Amino acid sequence: MNDISTWDVVRNLLDGVLWTLGLSLTAFVLGGLTGLALLFARIASTAWLRKLAKAYIEVFQGTPLLMQLFIIFFGSSLIGLELSPWLAAALGLTLFTSAYLGEIWRGCVESVPKGQWEASASLALSHFEQMRYVILPQALKIAIAPTVGFSVQVVKGTAVTSIIGFVELTKTGSMLANATYQPFLVFGLVALGYFALCYPLSVFSRRLERSAHGTRAH
Amino acid sequence: MTYAFDFASLLEYRDILLAGTLRTLALTAIGTFFGLALGVLGAASRAWQLAPWNRVFAVYVELIRNTPFLVQLFFIFFGLPSLGVSINEWQASILAMVINLGAYSTEIIRAGIEATPRGQIEAAESLAMTRRQIFLRVVLAPALRKVWPAICSQVVIVMLGSSVCSQIAAEELTFAANFIQSRNFRAFETYFVVTGMYFLLALAIRQLMLRAGDRLIGGRRT
């Protein structure tokens, strides 16, 4: 028995796209805030804070996202918390995103010439004021292109959350493929959905990169 | 309620963990070899605008880089058989990894090739080197040397990403973890240990590749 029309498939997949989009935005915003804290820790004058941030980044960049999700999902129940797949997915992706954004932004801050730090220090600005008024505004300009570029990785990363049972685009696709026996069509459409989300971001990031290089003399 | 951690219960499964690790390594090794080969072909076609291959690779790179690995894997494993191509979980995993790494390494290696000054090729031509010699020695080797650290990072990302191959029942390291935790009901300990194993694998692969790079294509010069 198979009375699922192609339109039903598309309609359900569009629902999945919304969940993928929602999870991506959540992870990107919360991951961005955490990443900012991580950036400050990474360039702090306190040594243990720097080391802690570095270890955090290395652990999240050196282990599979799927394992991180499993640990959060199963680990939370150990401490008596029953996280829903949505919360576990949002938490996992936020941590994952923050590690990468923190590291990307550190590179941007470090590419601001040292003289800017020295000049602002000579104006008796505090560390925080130096960051707020001198360094971050310049780093921000450099950071936009790679940050937009990384957002593509966040959107693609959300696919892995289907494995812990969060019903987004990939999970919707798996269920529809089982129900319709048309995996080629369904997963083709799923891929198209991700492409529609990611390709504009990729193009935008490349354009930003080019215009950033254009302003430099060479 | 306090939970008593029991990491020792994993010891009896060490053979399964070892087998999973070896399979993850084998997947990564095969995927890396063919993925980089594909990347070299793609990069050369793109950098020198060899029609029609430059167009083909341009589309391929965009399609792969803007869709998740998991979906590529499902598309290959579930989609191809419905077209009459029979494929098992290992073939699908390797194919997906090769296609995935091929797209990223095309872009990485292309950047290296495009950084080769035109004058170097002209100098090589004036020394009567053949086209093949010029490509291998004057263009490819320095290009790979320049982008080798980026390639190493990408290979590590692909290795970590291969954990989702467990979802099509390829019995690699994550599959082993899922199997073990379904037996000993120690999900947290199992995943924690296996995550640590992945971390060590990532470190080891990076070091090994950086050293292999020094050996095969000369020192890391900046």
From TrEMBL, chain A:
Membrane topology type? Multi-pass membrane protein
Alphabetized, the UniProt keywords read: Cell membrane, Membrane, Transmembrane, Transmembrane helix, Transport
- Please give the GO cellular component terms listed in this UniProt entry: ATP-binding cassette (ABC) transporter complex
A Pfam family annotated for this chain is BPD_transp_1
Residue ranges annotated for the ABC transmembrane type-1 domain, each copy included: 17-205
GO terms assigned for molecular function: transmembrane transporter activity
Designated name of the protein: Amino acid ABC transporter permease
TrEMBL record, chain B:
Q: Which Pfam families does the entry link to?
A: BPD_transp_1 (PF00528)
List the molecular function annotations (GO) for this entry. Answer: transmembrane transporter activity
| Location of this chain's protein in the cell | Cell inner membrane; Cell membrane
| Transmembrane domains' residue ranges | 20-44, 56-78, 190-210
Q: How does it sit in the membrane?
A: Multi-pass membrane protein
> Where in the numbering of this chain does the ABC transmembrane type-1 domain appear?
21-209
Q: Which PROSITE patterns match?
A: ABC_TM1 (PS50928)
Q: Which GO terms describe its cellular component?
A: ATP-binding cassette (ABC) transporter complex
Keywords of the record, alphabetical order, are:
Cell membrane, Membrane, Transmembrane, Transmembrane helix, Transport
Q: Which domain of life is it from?
A: Bacteria
Which family does the record claim for this protein?
A: Belongs to the binding-protein-dependent transport system permease family. HisMQ subfamily.
List the PANTHER family hit by this protein, alphabetically: ABC TRANSPORTER PERMEASE PROTEIN (PTHR30614:SF35), MEMBRANE COMPONENT OF AMINO ACID ABC TRANSPORTER (PTHR30614)
Task: Tell me the NCBIfam families matching this sequence.
Answer: HEQRo_perm_3TM (TIGR01726)
Protein name (database record) = Amino acid ABC transporter permease
* Organism from which the protein derives: Denitromonas iodatirespirans
